[in-house]
Amino acid sequence: MQIVTAKQYKNEILRVASIQNDTKIDQAVLEIIADVNKNGDAALTAYSAKFDCVNLDHFLVSKEEIDEAEKLVDSLFLTAIQRAKENITQFHEVQKEQSWFMNKEDGILLGQKVTAIEKVGVYIPGGKAAYPSTVLMNVIPAKIAGVESINIVTPPQPDGKVNPHVLAASRIAGADRIFKVGGAQAIAALAYGTESIEKVDKIVGPGNAYVASAKKWVYGDVAIDMIAGPSEICVVADETAKADYVAADLLSQAEHDERATSICITTHQQMAKAIQREIRKQAEHLERQTIIQTSLKQNGRIIIADTLHEAFELVNEIAPEHLQLMIKNPTENISYIRNAGAIFLGNYSPEPLGDYFAGPNHTLPTSGTAAFSSPLGVYDFMKKSSIIHYSKDALQAASNQIITLANTEGLSAHANAIRIRKDDENAPI
């Protein structure tokens, strides 16, 4: 893992080209979307055979399959996933918004009606690894919001079944249905519906470049949470950090994907060298060594900053998905951080704590979008309607001003809608 200065890093182009600009992926995805939109389940069957190498005569996971899955997972997993559910539920329940109303003055009632989205589709990856934690992070906020129908789509295994840990987590989280469909074709099915899979109002959940591209192209016909890129971590470490902890946390993100980004910013040259040594040492004993080495070579950097202030400014430029402040008095420095998906404080709050257990959502903005985006939450599964009520007298009092504004914009019919009420001597109260 290369050591560079802050100035050198700023001059580098580290990010992999955004999928939005990958015309080959876009073209393939658009063809898949059109095919599924036209041919429904027949297209899904063909793509399952082509991409997943399985021949399926149905896509819905049965109750018996979920029962079997729960018998295949061990009790330690079930205990851990249940406790994680409790933590995630407790955190997200605080996010639920309520409808509200205000009496501005006599005869005027204004407000906002908060309503849950009716139908949601959740994509759960199933390629290089299974992600039962992602099931919890996407389904639980939707349940708390009051979503009536939550459908999961996830790629089948070579045996035509879904990973048992994903199925067990889906039941614990409260998903309504699970379908054995993955890839861009699954996104198309959720967006437009097929004979087996109902059309949803919003699609959430991470996926590969094809899934992300599909979400981009169906957006507008349905809502989406975000277009997720490769995972990222940025650790700010001063002399109080432990080099072996920092190295372990950087490696935990590098194992996700060859395109993952692992960055450490430190103000101490000796700390940088110690972290570099620890990374080499620990990587030798990790299972996903090939992925880790590729990720660190392409996108891993240890950056030397002159001061913590410079480090924080660089963090805000990067706007990382995960930020760890492994520094003295991290809480006192939160105010300097403007752009980060999730912020982990101190030596004993590693990023995997947030991935699995603590409670805040692990679906986070990537690729610099933390500068304007937020983690997935209950608010993503709710929509708002404005409430407006004026009495006859209240409208009369405001009518001349409204007519003036409408005429200024050249919208005489707008003005007429006010005037006809203003001039109606026989108007009901």
UniProtKB/TrEMBL annotation:
<feature type="binding site">
    <location>
        <position position="253"/>
    </location>
    <ligand>
        <name>Zn(2+)</name>
    </ligand>
</feature>
<feature type="binding site">
    <location>
        <position position="409"/>
    </location>
    <ligand>
        <name>substrate</name>
    </ligand>
</feature>
<keyword id="KW-0862">Zinc</keyword>
<dbReference type="InterPro" id="IPR016161">
    <property type="entry name" value="Ald_DH/histidinol_DH"/>
</dbReference>
<protein>
    <recommendedName>
        <fullName>Histidinol dehydrogenase</fullName>
        <ecNumber>1.1.1.23</ecNumber>
    </recommendedName>
</protein>
<feature type="active site" description="Proton acceptor">
    <location>
        <position position="322"/>
    </location>
</feature>
<dbReference type="InterPro" id="IPR012131">
    <property type="entry name" value="Hstdl_DH"/>
</dbReference>
<feature type="binding site">
    <location>
        <position position="256"/>
    </location>
    <ligand>
        <name>Zn(2+)</name>
    </ligand>
</feature>
<feature type="binding site">
    <location>
        <position position="414"/>
    </location>
    <ligand>
        <name>Zn(2+)</name>
    </ligand>
</feature>
<keyword id="KW-0560">Oxidoreductase</keyword>
<feature type="binding site">
    <location>
        <position position="231"/>
    </location>
    <ligand>
        <name>substrate</name>
    </ligand>
</feature>
<keyword id="KW-0479">Metal-binding</keyword>
<keyword id="KW-0368">Histidine biosynthesis</keyword>
<feature type="binding site">
    <location>
        <position position="256"/>
    </location>
    <ligand>
        <name>substrate</name>
    </ligand>
</feature>
<feature type="binding site">
    <location>
        <position position="355"/>
    </location>
    <ligand>
        <name>Zn(2+)</name>
    </ligand>
</feature>
<feature type="binding site">
    <location>
        <position position="414"/>
    </location>
    <ligand>
        <name>substrate</name>
    </ligand>
</feature>
<feature type="active site" description="Proton acceptor">
    <location>
        <position position="321"/>
    </location>
</feature>
<dbReference type="InterPro" id="IPR001692">
    <property type="entry name" value="Histidinol_DH_CS"/>
</dbReference>
<dbReference type="InterPro" id="IPR022695">
    <property type="entry name" value="Histidinol_DH_monofunct"/>
</dbReference>
<dbReference type="GO" id="GO:0004399">
    <property type="term" value="F:histidinol dehydrogenase activity"/>
</dbReference>
<comment type="similarity">
    <text>Belongs to the histidinol dehydrogenase family.</text>
</comment>
<comment type="pathway">
    <text>Amino-acid biosynthesis; L-histidine biosynthesis; L-histidine from 5-phospho-alpha-D-ribose 1-diphosphate: step 9/9.</text>
</comment>
<feature type="binding site">
    <location>
        <position position="355"/>
    </location>
    <ligand>
        <name>substrate</name>
    </ligand>
</feature>
<dbReference type="Pfam" id="PF00815">
    <property type="entry name" value="Histidinol_dh"/>
</dbReference>
<feature type="binding site">
    <location>
        <position position="253"/>
    </location>
    <ligand>
        <name>substrate</name>
    </ligand>
</feature>
<comment type="function">
    <text>Catalyzes the sequential NAD-dependent oxidations of L-histidinol to L-histidinaldehyde and then to L-histidine.</text>
</comment>
<feature type="binding site">
    <location>
        <position position="123"/>
    </location>
    <ligand>
        <name>NAD(+)</name>
    </ligand>
</feature>
<keyword id="KW-0028">Amino-acid biosynthesis</keyword>
<feature type="binding site">
    <location>
        <position position="208"/>
    </location>
    <ligand>
        <name>NAD(+)</name>
    </ligand>
</feature>
<feature type="binding site">
    <location>
        <position position="185"/>
    </location>
    <ligand>
        <name>NAD(+)</name>
    </ligand>
</feature>
<keyword id="KW-0520">NAD</keyword>
<feature type="binding site">
    <location>
        <position position="322"/>
    </location>
    <ligand>
        <name>substrate</name>
    </ligand>
</feature>
